Amino acid sequence: MTRNTKRTTRRNFLRGLGGTALSLPWLESVSTGSPSGSLNLVSSTANVQQRMAHFYVPIGVVRRGFFPGEADDVIPKGNLGNVMKSLGKQNPKLSVKPLEKLTPTLQPLEDLKSKINLITGMDRTFQQGTDVHAQCASCYLSSAVPYTVKGTAWPLDRTLDHLVADKVGRKTPFPTLEFSCNSHRDNKESIYFDNISWFGIGHLAPSIRDPRKMYHRLFSTREIDRYRDITDLVLEDARSLKNELGGSDQQKFAEYFDSIRTIEKQMDRLEKMRTELSKVKFDEPPEAHLPRGEYIRLMGDLMVVALQTGLTNVTTFMVGPERWDTPYKFEGLFDKPRSHHQMSHNQTKMIDDLLKVDRFHMEQFAYLAKKMDAIEQPGGTTLLDNTLFTYGSGLGDGSTHQYNDLPIIVAGGGKKIKSGQHINLPEGTPLANLWLTQSRLMGLKMDRFADSSGEVTQILSNA
Predict the structure, then answer these.
(1) What is the pLDDT of residue 23?
(2) Which of 342, 348, 386, 432 is the most exposed place for a label (fewest CB within 10 A)?
(3) Of the candidates 115, 18, 23, 105, the residue with the CA atom closest to the CA atom of residue 304
(4) Dihedral through CA 396, CA 398, CA 403, CA 409, nearest 10?
(5) What is residue 419's three-state secondary structure?
(6) Whole-Å CA distances, 5 to 14, 33, 37, 42, 239
(7) What ranges make up the beta strands (E) of 298-407?
(8) By the 8 A CB rule, do 91 and 424 touch?
(9) Strands (E), 194-292
(10) Residue spans of the chain under pLDDT 70
(11) CB-based burial of residue 4 (10 Å sphere; 0-12 exposed, 13-18 middle, 19+ buried)?
């Protein structure tokens, strides 16, 4: 921002020394780009861009804790194929009910109940030729119809996030951003177990796992160590802009800068902890002892800031990889690092621990959804209102490895979405129906997505 003008549009960047840049959040009194450069009041939602974010949880869930009406169900025994067919089909017909009493795993979403939809009954097709886990994440958002991609065992083609970004990501600095919370580097599995975002067949969209690297990607154009604290570099320009804002926007501006400082402090703390842990000999990699929730929330804070400031309109957020046995420290749950995958294969003995992990993951999703819902945007809306924020997993149950009746929650969506519902779809409804619905809500003119058979009209407010 130059000294001889008061033009402060939402696309302006506050710039400091060393090529560092910090994008602005939406501010009510800042012009959206009028020719005169004056400060205008923005009250319309007409120009608010819809956003899309996917929060992926590996290895499914414990059904009795997540799905309504299954609290007393017993894990069936027998052939895996028969088990997969027998589970999740207690309600094979369509039903739409108000989302009332939440199950234990869903309880962290109690305060957001009016802004979420629990969607059950959707299935995926497992294409024979790979391990069950191999297609869980990699093909979760795939636009490929199973058994149609030649020369590969994976039904994998350009994923939903990139198709949507082709429409809504052309004017943002980053068409998409891929976040991963797998801090381990042991590379036990192939890339198919550890990624949900793909440019196309065989072309991975690599995720960023290090909070510092993501921070620099978002806010810095030159990596200069002596300029680590970005807010110190832009503070002078920030004060100048702040004087032009109304009272409520000054508070928003201060909160925004405080959130950036908090992210920096969290990164410094985790980096210091990682350095200290690297000096100690553990059976597990040092990363196994990093506090899991803090790491996920830090990466999530970065995702929210990127969406808030318009650096991107499309993100994917992967909580962890499929099938890796490398343990994590679930702080507050267990006294030592534990492997989510290993626990899932002993569900009858570790049911209580697995239920704790499922709720732990839901707490992180709820934390981010609440944070988004607290960020004001034009027309009295919030960032959550203007975002399709989806929780999901590629498995319906981590113990039985079923591809049917997946655990899906859609938060946000604003006036385009009917919320506060439990939608149980008929048996055999493809998950791709939801992705088709979301792509159309994001403005794509698409007749079909993968093996979709139609929209999930029950979530549409104009249906």
Answers:
(1) 58
(2) 348
(3) 23
(4) 30
(5) coil
(6) 14, 13, 8, 20, 15
(7) 314-318, 376-377, 381-382, 387-392
(8) yes
(9) 198-200, 203-204
(10) 1-47, 72-91, 187, 220-253, 255, 273-274, 276-288, 463
(11) exposed
Q: Which residues contact 80 (CB under 8 A, 6 or more apart)?
A: 400, 401
Domains and CATH numbers, the chain: 50-227+271-459 (3.40.720.10)
C-alpha to C-alpha distances, 95 to 99, 103, 119, 245, 437, nearest whole angstrom: 12, 18, 10, 49, 18
Separation CA 276–CA 199 (nearest Å): 37
Instruction: Please state, in angstroms and rounded to a whole number, the distance separating the CA atoms of residues 167 and 360.
Output: 34
Return the pLDDT at 286.
Answer: 65
> What does the alpha-carbon distance between residue 433 and residue 410 come to, in Å, rounded to a whole number?
13
Looking up tokens 């052309």, which residue turns up? 170
What is the tens place of the pLDDT at every residue in 319-340? 999 988 889 999 999 999 999 9
What is the pLDDT at residue 248? 66
